[in-house]
Amino acid sequence: MADLKTFYLPDLGEGLPDATVVEWHVKVGDSIKLDAPLCSMETAKAIVDVPSPYTGKVTKLHGAPGDVIETGAALAEFEPDPNAKQRAEAESTGHHHGPRKSVGSPAPDNSRKVVASDEGGEVAVKGVDREDEGTVVGAMVSGNTVHVEQAASVGGVKAVPAVRALAKKLKVDLTRVTPSGADGVVTLKDVKNAAANGSAPLLPSPSGRGAGGEGTVGARHSASPEPSPGAARHPLPTSGEGRTAVSLAGKSVRTAPPSQQASGQPEQLKGVRRNMARVMADAHAQVVPTTLVDDADLHAWIGKQDITARLIRAIVAACKSVPALNAWFDGKNLSRTQHPHVDIGIAVDTDDGLFVPALRNADVLDAAGVRAAIKRLRAQVEDRSIPSSELSGHTISLSNFGMFAGRYATPVVVPPTVAIVGAGKLSHDVVAVIGGIEVHRRLPISLTFDHRAATGGEAARFLKALLDDLAQPN
Which residues span the domain enclosing 171? Predict the structure, then answer.
């Protein structure tokens, strides 16, 4: 009998407990070479190609596109080619297969200085090999290995995993896209242009089945659920079509009883949104949050000004005035690390979930530098090309939710940071002044802080310094 080998999903350098299958590059029965792309997996930070650990024949694939695979669970099975050179069992593949650090592992020495690069690159830690604790919306461990997405040739098309994922999302046929990258590589811009002009639409499969001969993920739930014994004889319509305010008996429709089955299907969280749920739950369990709110009076502003740049400047001024909130807090060891520099995590909302890229060295940037850096970070988030180093190491956070709606909020403080500033929707308020009343432009500000690490007095003085800076004419 052939010697079959099982390949277990390695830690993809993110420290996450699972990853989502985006696309299989092979099907059962295919032959594959060592290090050839096996599949694309989506984590909370990126879409990466997982290379084949063997040269041989694929005998089984675990999971369809869209399925979540736990780290350490079986991903694929192979029949290695006995005549081909295989990688030694102990040889590194570039991913981490070893056990994760236990919860009780020693905490890092917070006395070591963290230095952010001027270009918004990696955070270097003096005196120790870097162990990235960065995340999309919180902390997760990753290794020191730098993972670079390579353009793999699959189906005659050269493209990195992020480009393939975007093409799938926009329903673009990569084989019909004209590549503009070096060596015939299809770029993100090529896919976006093809989607915009409709030059390469993805044609539906006549059989409605995937390339591997398996049904699509959605097909698993296509059958209607069997009605429960206690279900009504005339169940409510499952779609908006045909719904009325009157029942078949001519009476007003009431809400369904608790025994009535829901018509929708549960959707499993994946990728960025899945990690966001975990991090928010951890933050809720670990932090003791307290929120202060007030309004910044912008009546003295001269001419048109960049509100986001002014917010960044005001946060920097407040951090210099009260360094206690520009800090990290270690709840296990009850230690606090105050930072001499200000790296601000900017919350960016996307359809895939929340990203928090770091605006490095905000304390030395002028308004033009702030705007250019934010524009770059947003573009990288939108096309999912942002490196992991940009999603870690911020010392304080900003959520500018007022761009959409809302005056005040209780933003979530994600450890190890101590504080987050929330900016609400700009309003025109009637303000009492000496001799009468005036209408002033005012910006609602919410400051949430971890009360274990900072006192109420420190938070109030921080908020006052922030409001005072925003009140300046320019």
Answer: 151-204
